[in-house]
Design brief:
The complex is a heterodimer. By secondary structure, chain A is α/β, with parallel strands linked by helices. Chain A has a single domain, classed as Amidase signature (AS) enzymes, CATH 3.90.1300. Chain A contains 17 helices and 11 strands. Chain A has helices at about 5-15, 20-30, 45-60, 100-110, 150-160, 175-180, 215-225, 260, 270-285, 295-315, 335-345, 345-360, 365-390, 405-410, 410-415, 425, 450-465, and strands spanning about 40, 70-75, 110-115, 165-170, 185, 205-210, 255-260, 290, 390-395, 430-435, 445. In chain A, helix 2 (about 20-30) runs antiparallel to helix 3 and helix 10 (about 295-315) packs across helix 12. In chain B, about 30% of the residues lie in helices and about 5% in strands. Chain B is mainly alpha-helical. Chain B has a domain at about 60-90. Chain B contains 3 helices and 2 strands; from the N terminus they run αααββ. Chain B has helices spanning about 5-10, 20-30, 60-70, and strands at about 75, 80. Chain B has a two-stranded antiparallel sheet with strand order 1-2. The longest helix of chain B has 12 residues, at about 20-30. Classes of the chains: A alpha/beta, B mainly alpha. At the A-B interface, helix 10, helix 11, helix 12, helix 13 and helix 15 of A face helix 1, helix 2 and helix 3 of B. Chain A: Keywords: Transferase. Chain A: Belongs to the amidase family. Chain A: It comes from Algibacter marinivivus. Chain A: InterPro entries: Amidase, Amidase_CS, Amidase_dom, AS_sf.
Chain lengths: ~475, ~90
């Protein structure tokens, strides 16, 4: 599909539609939707902003490309004055005091926020069932999960309730729901977009990521949000990616894939055969394809979850009901902390906090946490060597099709393993895009660190090739 | 006071126990082979000390202060109420 942003921009400029009618139509869609994608509707704010855009157009002023474009925000981003619940009981009445840098940049460009979107609580999940707002239902088949943790965001884009949405990806939370709902979802290079104002899950892999229906819309939104921010010391300055720069794929000569992702019983047979068919189509275009060695899925998943749990135990230790959150008073301070956290965190969040404290405690940290860090180094080195051999790595997004609602909660270990194809790229901090092509749950395109441009370029090539 | 703290105390979560699903992950790490076991070689997350932001106090806006107070869980006669302080 071509760019919705360009299309709507033209319609607004040509006065074929008003921004108010556009925003109202999207709000109506969100309000009536039965997929459980909405935590808070920002109707008053959105309609006020739309009226301003209409006034500008009526005055004959030119508007920017993103001006008046309605978008959604995963409910883990701060937007001043709006509820930011992280889909949790603990923060169900918490109001953002300030605005996240990535979101502020979109507001500065004139984009209009419509909705805070349902997701797994604190990003803890792969299905968007771990939420107080009801399980997010898949856009294609509502009996299936919407994916997670940015499930509400991916479903809203797929259903055209938002033109684009901003998800958050720590271990696959943008790419997997994008794959489950047949839309594009990008996890940029770690640090390309500031994390300031994104509620921290695992700080060393947390990434802000756009979800949209075209590569061009991903490019536009990525450019606006990218860049150095003094409020996030891990962010870095980067050049804008131009439309021309990603239109030709001539520089891509070699593509790799991890053979152990494919040569396993854990992969769905259809996903496997579709993936291999895609490889053949790429070869037919004269591109060399190399089968690469990689770490076992279990090692990748275990390394990721060990480090992510350690980081989330630390990040969520601040949530004790003292300064904000749903405090439940008890006999003394310690009891108040314990009761507040026990009553307000979901089972999955508690599981991860406890796991994190386990690996960080004396006696476990050397054997598990420090070894996990060493494994992460090995994984990164492996990637560095691979990108000396190939320009791009492609992989399926998930080993299986989306599970039925209710199944993931019954078996957390199986849910962790379902992230096998996404978590490695998070540990490597590499730019990776899900495209809605190649297999039922899409394909991931990965390039070396900081080479987000090459990812979009190859996505454009595949759009016309497969 | 005992030096051994259980995960429920460490996590401030009543009755918390290590879970089987998570322990399975840790077993994989214990049994994995690494080419080096020295986590101090970690080169992924280091930041340059030459590029730190200025250490300046920036006053919050009025609206920010107002929302922070609004988020406070308990208020009495114009004061923000915290729990009883630990006596031990």
């Amino acid at each position: 599909m071509s760019s919705q942003i360009h299309h709507i921009h033209q319609q607004l400029m040509n006065k074929e539609i008003t921004c108010t009618s556009l925003v109202q139509e999207k709000l109506d869609g969100l309000k009536q939707n039965t997929n459980n994608t909405v935590n808070t509707l920002l109707d008053t704010m959105a309609l006020d902003l739309a009226a301003k855009v209409d006034a500008k157009i009526a005055n004959g002023e030119t508007i920017g490309l993103l001006e008046g474009i309605p978008f959604g925000i995963k409910d883990v981003y701060m937007l001043q004055g709006t509820y930011t619940t992280a889909s949790s009981d603990l923060l169900k009445n918490y109001k953002s005091a300030y605005t996240a840098t990535a979101i502020q940049k979109l507001l500065d460009a004139g984009a209009i926020p419509l909705v805070k979107e349902n997701c797994d609580s604190f990003g803890h999940g792969s299905s968007s069932e771990n939420t107080i707002f009801g399980a997010v239902k898949n856009a294609i088949n509502p009996d299936l999960v919407g994916g997670g943790s940015s499930g509400g965001s991916a479903v809203n884009v797929a259903k055209d309730y938002t033109v684009f949405s901003i998800g958050g990806d720590t271990g696959g939370s943008v790419r997997q729901p994008a794959g489950y709902n047949n839309v594009y979802g990008l996890k940029p290079t770690y640090g390309r977009i500031s994390r300031y104002g994104l509620m921290a899950y695992a700080s060393s892999t947390d990434c802000v990521g756009p979800i949209a229906k075209s590569i061009e819309d991903i490019r536009i939104v990525l450019n606006v949000m990218s860049g150095k921010d003094i409020k996030d010391q891990t962010s870095y300055a980067c050049a804008e990616i131009s439309q021309e720069a990603i239109s030709s794929s001539e520089t891509i000569k070699t593509v790799g894939y991890f053979k152990n992702f494919i040569e396993t019983d854990a992969i769905d047979t259809k996903i496997k055969s579709d993936f291999l068919e895609t490889i053949e189509k790429i070869k037919a275009k004269g591109i060399q394809v190399k089968a690469l060695d990689f770490f076992e899925s279990e090692t990748l998943v275990s390394t990721y979850y060990t480090l992510a749990m350690a980081e989330t135990a630390s990040n969520l230790s601040r949530l004790d009901g003292t300064n904000y959150g749903n405090r439940i008073e008890s006999d003394n301070l310690k009891e108040t902390y314990a009761v507040t956290r026990s009553e307000n965190f979901s089972e999955e969040t508690k599981r991860r906090i406890v796991g994190g404290n386990q690996v960080l405690s004396q006696g476990f940290s050397d054997e598990i946490y420090l070894k996990g860090l060493a494994l992460r180094d090995n994984i990164s080195e492996n990637f560095e060597n691979d990108f000396n051999e190939v320009d791009i790595i492609i992989s399926p997004v998930t080993p299986s099709t989306p599970p039925k609602i209710g199944d993931s909660l019954k078996n957390p270990h199986a849910m962790y393993l379902s992230d096998a194809y996404t978590v490695g790229f998070s540990l490597g901090q590499l730019p990776t895009l899900t495209i809605p092509q190649g297999t039922t749950t899409g394909l991931q395109i990965t390039a070396a660190k900081h080479n987000d441009e090459l990812v979009l370029k190859f996505a454009n090539f595949l759009k016309d090739t497969i | 006071m005992s030096k051994i703290m259980t995960v429920d105390v460490l996590s401030s979560i009543k009755g918390a126990q290590p879970s089987e699903a998570v322990n399975k992950l840790f077993e994989v790490i214990k049994n994995a082979n690494t080419t080096n076991n020295n986590a101090f070689n970690n080169h992924n997350n280091a930041l340059s000390l030459n590029d730190l932001r200025e250490d300046l106090v920036v006053d919050s806006s009025e609206i920010e202060k107002q929302i922070i107070i609004e988020n406070f869980p308990k208020e009495k006669n114009g004061y923000l109420v915290v729990s009883k302080v630990i006596e031990e």
